[in-house]
């Protein structure tokens, strides 16, 4: 089944995401370091998340949504007018998606419903996903976050040992 | 009758997927959670618990990214680019 293939990242596939993330993140850090300005924690965080999302590419909903959010944030800085329009449109899509989902979920208890709605908030794009995709994408997102944390920790340890 | 059957079959192949597949996905999610991973009798963990723990775990990971970003931003200010290049080479090996 297609889903099995997606959820169980093969070692090579996972390895390549890891390599791509490391490359992108280090490159981003190097660029941040080039500017003589002080490096804010926020910039490092954005660099990490966008490196991870672009390493994954557009095959996943969460990575597509994450990249879109980051670009939107950059737009906000560039032009507040464009930003407002984008946000309004995005909100429309988001609300429709959530409404659509609510009708679908029928036979689950309150605890599960609570867990599902929390998960929708935590996984980028979760609001617009159908339940099975939400589970699938959550698993993938967790694997990638784990990898991201591991690499960030390695880099920090190396930097502090220099 | 026939229209009802075709509707239900479209459901199972399209938007709706079977309970078994959902259970399978929940089990896979459970294997990724440190607290529930080593639970041998996997059927004893309720889906609600798996969902709850998944949320908590994602929150923890987000927090770790925040902490590490803070740590890295501090470290980068005290490291020059040649050192960063050295580390880059080390990591790429």
Highlighted features:
heterodimer; A: 162 residues; mainly alpha; 7 helices; 82% helix; globular; disordered N terminus; B: 93 residues; MYOD Basic-Helix-Loop-Helix Domain, subunit B; 5 helices; 0% strand; transcription (chain B); bHLH_dom (chain B); nucleus (chain B)
In words, what does this structure look like?
The complex is a heterodimer of chains A (162) and B (93). Helices cover 82% and strands 0% of the residues of chain A. Chain A is globular and about 55 Å long. In chain A, helix 4 packs antiparallel against helix 5. Chain A has 162 residues and is an all-alpha fold. With 93 residues, chain B is an all-alpha fold. Chain B contains five helices and no strands. The model of chain B is unreliable at 1-14 (pLDDT under 50). Classes of the chains: A mainly alpha (162), B mainly alpha (93). Chains A and B meet through helix 2, helix 3, helix 6 and helix 7 of A and helix 2, helix 4 and helix 5 of B.
Which pair has the most extensive contact? A-B, 55 and 46 residues
Number of helices of chain A: 7
Largest sheet of chain A: none
What is the mean pLDDT of chain B?
76
Q: Strand percentage of chain A, roughly?
A: under 5%
GO cellular component, one term (chain A): nucleus
Domain IBH1-like N-terminal (chain A): 16-73
Subcellular location (chain A): Nucleus
Pfam family, one (chain A): IBH1_N
Q: In short, what is this structure?
A:
The complex is a heterodimer of chains A (162) and B (93). Chain A contains seven helices and no strands.
How are the secondary structure elements laid out?
The complex is a heterodimer of chains A (162) and B (93).
Chain A: H1 2-7, H2 11-34, H3 41-56, H4 61-78, H5 80-104, H6 110-122, H7 131-161
Helix pairs in contact in A: 2-3, 2-7, 3-4, 4-5
Chain B: H1 2-13, H2 19-31, H3 34-37, H4 47-77, H5 81-92
GO biological process, one term (chain A): regulation of DNA-templated transcription
Subcellular location (chain A): Nucleus
Pfam families (chain A): IBH1_N
């Amino acid at each position: 089944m297609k889903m099995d293939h997606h959820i169980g990242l093969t070692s090579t596939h996972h390895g390549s995401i890891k390599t791509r993330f490391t490359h992108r993140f280090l490159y981003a850090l190097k660029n941040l370091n080039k500017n003589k300005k002080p490096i804010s924690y926020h910039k490092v965080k954005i660099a990490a998340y966008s490196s991870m999302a672009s390493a994954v590419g557009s095959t996943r909903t969460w990575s597509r949504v994450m990249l879109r959010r980051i670009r939107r944030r950059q737009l906000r800085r560039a032009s507040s007018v464009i930003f407002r329009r984008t946000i309004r449109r995005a909100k429309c899509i988001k609300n429709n998606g959530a409404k659509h989902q609510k009708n679908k979920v029928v036979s689950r208890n309150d605890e599960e419903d609570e867990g599902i709605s929390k998960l929708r908030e935590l996984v980028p794009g979760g609001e617009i996903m159908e339940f099975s995709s939400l589970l699938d994408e959550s698993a993938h997102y967790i694997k990638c976050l784990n990898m991201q944390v591991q690499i960030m920790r390695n880099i920090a340890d190396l930097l502090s040992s220099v | 009758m026939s229209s009802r059957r075709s509707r239900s079959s479209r459901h199972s192949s399209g938007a709706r997927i079977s309970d078994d597949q959902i259970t399978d996905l929940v089990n896979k999610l459970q294997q990724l959670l440190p607290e529930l991973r080593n639970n041998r009798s996997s059927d004893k963990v309720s889906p609600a618990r798996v969902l709850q723990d998944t949320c908590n775990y994602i929150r923890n990971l987000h927090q770790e990214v925040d902490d590490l970003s803070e740590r890295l931003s501090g470290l980068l200010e005290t490291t020059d680019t040649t050192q960063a290049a050295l580390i880059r080479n080390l990591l790429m090996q």
